[in-house]
Amino acid sequence: MDLLQAGSEAFNEACTMLDNFTEATAGLDDIEELLETILNLLSSSSSDGSEKTKRRKLDADAEAGLLTLHSRTFLLLGQLIEHKDHVRAFDLYSKSHALASKIPNDDSIAVEPCVELGRYSFKYAVDEKMLDKAKQHLTRAIELVGEPTPTSDSDSNSSSKSDSKSDSKSDTNSDSNSDSDDEEDDVFAAGREAKMYLARLICQSSASDALARKHLLEMDYKYRLSPVVIRSSAGVVNPVEDETFVGAWDDIYSPNLLGRLQSCFLPSSPFFSEHKYNSPSCGYFSYKMPLPLKSTGDILTSAISRVHKTVCSRMPKTKRATWVEWWCHSRHHNDGHSLHYDYIFSDDEGGEGARHPLASTVSYLEADCGGPTLITDQTMSNGLSSFGYKVEPKKNRLLCFEGNRLHCVLPGSELPPSNDSRRVTLMIAFWEFDPGAPMTPEKSEKAFEWPGVVRSEYDEAVREESIAADPHNNDAILRVDKLIEDLKHPESDVGPIDLLDDGIFTFFGALNSGLVIAKKGVCSLNCGGKCEVCRQTM
């Protein structure tokens, strides 16, 4: 078996493992090891003198096949490991791009590496130089596909970001029409993805509104989130006088409890590492506890108790809650979370369809970077939005809002102070019904380390028995009356509109690699394990 055939078969095996991924069949480490084996095989071959002589005799197609295989292996391995080693992932993307650029008469292989380099540079940007690099890579990817760049007057169509790249199997030994069609589809999907990233980058940039509108119109969008929503420095927003569906408090936790929570949810903490947070296999996950709490003698339950008492003072209906659900996020500056509802579907006899928490809350544990939380007046019932509220992240701030509201996390609008900065948030939702999430493990859980950390005892001597009766902080809640901008008529007012309409550009979620193999919770809409996808692995 020659080198190209052996490498291609191993690469296709890795892709098949990704397509059929479950923790029971193969772990990410197994797939990573197989890709490393392919790279070692190709590297040892290129350094061996006799193999070099053989390769000089290869015909052009075989040489292109080896370059393609090598480039795709670098790319896939980078996507697989970025969540735990983003520095090495960047090196792998760069090597993938360098090899793809050497393939004669075929620019298509270089498209995906360009997209990943652009996305990566955008996600981890700490200066204007990195943002410029992101623009260059994304623009180049669009040019390679043959799509017009934002400076062109041509029209083009675009669709949403591709969810998976594990279909990019190596077809270097196949000339079938179906394989060629699949590869062409992958290339155009990558080109559309590049346009989405570039549009978002332009929208987030200052002094680029005219270019942003031009680019989005070329992509057949009619509207976008207005600059006053996306950028903290744009437009005018006003503090609210009073509003029943949103509230905010500063200094919600005592200094001691805040410090303990921050330690529990450090980016390097067991909670994130043991869940493989941000890896391609990690979808949405949360945990539940029954109310009233059995005790408040540990870090997590102390935080939940404090938040529950505070929210009940603002939204008395939260006193009816019989369950609490909680989860946590650690985001980079340019990562957001797309518009979504918190809900589960009830399939019980006499069920009422979508059910929402009585109240959802966000505790900002770290807030050195990242953007605001946006809460809109849109619900599943009314289906339209006229205005919204945004609350900027601030350390030790608590935000609460009615659980049926459409909301999102916006990316940061300026540059972060450092690449180590994170926006760490603890979400706590209060339900009248069982949210369907797994029970919170007890401290005695032995399979993982994180339950013992978050359930560790909280020193009674420094606990505060009750919440201060200070009024909530109106100044933290900023009302935004112009949520949407008409791209052709930016000065006009847009009436009530469905923010989930496909004609509105709202692509502001997390800037993770396009490789997604998660099955549990892949819906990301807090289904509580009720949807068909989540039930497969619950």
Q: What can you see in these coordinates?
A:
The chain is of the alpha+beta class and 538 residues long. 36% of the residues lie in helices and 14% in strands. It has helices at 3-19, 28-47, 49-56, 60-81, 86-100, 111-123, 128-145, 177-204, 209-218, 227-230, 255-264, 270-274, 299-314, 450-454, 532-535; strands spanning 223-225, 238-239, 246-250, 287-290, 323-331, 337-340, 344-346, 353-355, 359-367, 373-376, 388-391, 397-402, 407-409, 423-431, 478-480, 484-486, 504-505. The protein has a six-stranded antiparallel beta sheet with strand order 2-15-11-10-13-6, with no helix packed on it. A six-stranded antiparallel beta sheet has the order 3-12-9-14-5-4, covered by helices on one side. Strands 16-1-17 form a three-stranded mixed beta sheet. Helix 5 (86-100) packs antiparallel against helix 6 (111-123) and helix 6 (111-123) packs parallel to helix 8 (177-204).
Helix content: 25-40%
Q: Which regions have little confidence, pLDDT < 50, spanning 5+ residues?
A: 151-177, 520-538
Fraction in beta strands = 5-15%
> How many DSSP helices?
15
Mean pLDDT: 83
- Please tally the β strands and state the result: 17
The neighbouring-strand order within the major sheet is 2-15-11-10-13-6
Cα-atom Rg, whole angstroms? 25 Å
Q: What structural category arises from helix and sheet content?
A: alpha+beta
Q: What is the terminal separation in angstroms?
A: 42 Å
Instruction: Report on the biggest sheet.
Output: 6 strands, antiparallel
Question: What is the general shape?
Answer: globular
